[in-house]
Specification:
4 domains; Beta-Lactamase; alpha+beta; six-stranded mixed sheet; five-stranded antiparallel sheet
């Protein structure tokens, strides 16, 4: 273009500029429209996903905690209705009942006490010196005396330790008396402390006075609940007893806080999950940054391509103009027109292909988003599935420390030698009535003699009890069935299995049965912690637990534990089996 006159140079500069602007506009509009729509839809979908996930999580944990409280109430109600006042007033008998509870459920119930109408504790079983304690002036006693079954708030009391009580009121010759049980605060607190998501998400329980009912190592934004609207459905417009309340508020420090809450204990407590808004939507913001970076890089690529196309096109046009000057006017004019036509066709072809693809793809996405009923479209499920996979893998790489948990409850950790067969016989005797009521026959096939095991006997009792109860519960009461317990020894390992003829476990659920809070039982009939606790105990004993199950045929749990070195072991062991025991 160096030999062209100034007016022609101005023309070529204008042509180059116009081609550049046209290419940029035609290419950027679909990119911007597509990016904006995708970003909006992704934001909406992700926000709904976060809301649904947190609401379901809080609802599930609230149900588990409510179940925990109701089970403890049922334990105390059953004890109060099963024995007369005179028998429960005996310290030795009350201590036996406490021991039975702790063997069956672990140290969830710390102590038991009998209180007369004057507030005097006339009988006590537990680790504290509370035999003659007087609760006449205690607020909880007044409320307990006015209720058939009462569960208090967490308080310090005479023991100067946080705890709460479950009390059952009964009458003796028209005079009221209370059977009181103290619930272990640490065991209850673990049900809530293990609820955490991300870096800032955690849970706690408050009462109507916005007083903490659980311990929390993180800062709780109590100002969010100063109006106590959680306990007034007419203010929130949500039935918080059944569906969690989801709100976003600004704390005094200026941070946006998400909290999800659901009422517990007949509306007296609220389980609250709190998380920083930035943490809850961190994956969304990261995706937005990536999409913005992609949009910027795409824009830069379009600008560079437009600059190259405009320059390349202008150079070709200028060369054609120079060739045109060599010919006569007609030939030059025809050649010019022919060249312009050919070049225009080539340019149109070169530009049309990528632009057509982008416009077609953008149009296709727009059709999916605008023309179809987007909320009912199958493509939405695929879109959500893909986004769910992205989010799932991101969370997996970022943080594995919040899922477990140690859910094991505190128990007697004293290590001692004990005989597994004797322990199994004791547990089956305890569960015989449960089995009989469930129309289940328990068969024992115990190899004798069997080397001793060196471990915590209390923890082993809990493992056997949980496996046996699960096996019994898996069998239909109407049809009945069998539970077979078998022990044997090879080399340095002792094995025992619990096998039932129940409904079995599906392959999908089989992979999750040791996950905390996962249960195949109907809602309200299980906390989902039994097998998780068993797994933790067996692992702590350096043992292994294996499960096999077939639907409609039953399940088999095998546990292998190292045998203790015992001087009573003989080199030759005679194998014999016991008969069956029908329950």
């Amino acid at each position: 273009m160096g030999n062209n006159p100034p007016d022609r140079l101005e023309y070529y500069a204008s042509l180059k500029r116009n081609i550049f602007i046209a290419v940029v506009i035609v290419s950027m509009i679909p990119l911007i429209v597509f990016g904006s729509i995708t970003r909006y839809e992704f934001h909406t979908s992700y926000a709904e996903k976060v809301r649904a996930h947190l609401s379901i999580m809080v609802k599930k944990h609230a149900q588990n905690i409510d179940t925990f409280l109701k089970e403890r109430q049922a334990n105390i109600v059953s004890l109060a209705s099963s024995y007369p006042y005179e028998q429960l007033a005996d310290n030795a008998f009350l201590a036996q009942q406490l021991t039975r509870f702790q063997k069956t459920y672990g140290p969830v119930i710390t102590d038991l006490g009998i209180i007369n109408e004057k507030g005097e504790q006339i009988s006590y079983a537990g680790p504290f010196q509370l035999k003659d304690a007087n609760y006449a002036e205690s607020e909880w006693l007044k409320q307990a005396m006015a209720s058939d079954v009462y569960t208090s708030d967490v308080f310090m009391g005479l023991r100067r330790l946080p705890h709460f009580i479950v009390a059952v009121r009964s009458l003796k010759n028209g005079t009221p008396w209370l059977l009181r049980a103290t619930i272990d605060f640490m065991a209850f607190n673990e049900l809530v402390q293990n609820i955490h998501i991300g870096k800032t998400g955690f849970a706690f329980i408050i009462n109507k006075k916005i007083e903490m009912q659980t311990d929390s190592t993180r800062s709780v934004e109590k100002n969010l609940f100063r109006d106590a609207e959680l306990f007034h459905p007419d203010k929130t417009g949500t039935d918080i007893m059944n569906e969690p309340l989801f709100q976003t508020r600004t704390s005094d420090s200026g941070k946006e806080i998400i909290y999800v809450a659901r009422l517990l204990k007949n509306g007296e407590w609220a389980l609250v999950f709190q998380q920083d808004h930035l943490d809850a939507y961190s994956e969304l913001y990261r995706a937005r940054e990536v999409s913005l970076l992609t949009l910027v890089l795409g824009g830069i690529a379009i600008v560079l391509m437009a600059a190259w196309v405009s320059r390349h096109t202008t150079i070709k046009i200028a060369k054609a103009d120079q060739e045109k000057e060599i010919m006569n006017r007609q030939v030059i004019q025809s050649g010019h027109l022919a060249s312009i036509g050919m070049l225009a066709a080539g340019i149109a072809h070169e530009i049309n292909n990528p632009v057509a693809i982008m416009v077609e793809e953008a149009g296709w996405i727009e059709d999916l988003l605008e023309d179809e009923d987007f909320k009912e479209s199958e493509n939405l499920n695929e879109f959500k599935r893909a986004l769910g996979q992205i989010r799932k893998q991101g969370i997996r790489c970022r943080n594995i420390t919040h899922k477990m948990l140690n859910f094991s409850r505190h128990s007697d950790h004293r290590v001692q030698l004990f005989n597994l067969n004797e322990l199994i016989r004791e547990i089956t005797n305890l569960s015989s009535q449960h089995a009989k009521y469930s129309n289940v026959t328990i068969e024992l096939n115990l190899t004798e003699p069997l080397s001793s095991i060196k471990a915590s006997q209390t923890e082993m009792e809990q493992v056997i009890f949980n496996l046996l109860n699960n096996a019994i519960d898996a069998i239909d009461k109407k049809e009945g069935g069998k539970v077979r317990i078998h022990t044997w020894q090879d080399d340095s390992m002792i094995h025992f299995e619990v096998q039932d003829t129940g409904s079995g476990i599906s392959e999908a659920n089989l992979k999750r049965i040791f996950d905390p809070f996962f249960s195949t039982k109907p809602t309200g009939q299980g906390t989902g912690l039994g097998l998780s606790i068993c797994y933790g105990i067996v692992q702590k004993m350096n043992g292994q637990i294996v499960v096999e199950s077939t639907l409609e045929k039953g399940s088999r749990f095998e546990i292998s534990l190292p045998a203790a070195e015992s001087p009573e072991e003989t080199e030759t062991k005679t194998t014999k089996t016991t008969g069956s025991m029908t329950s």
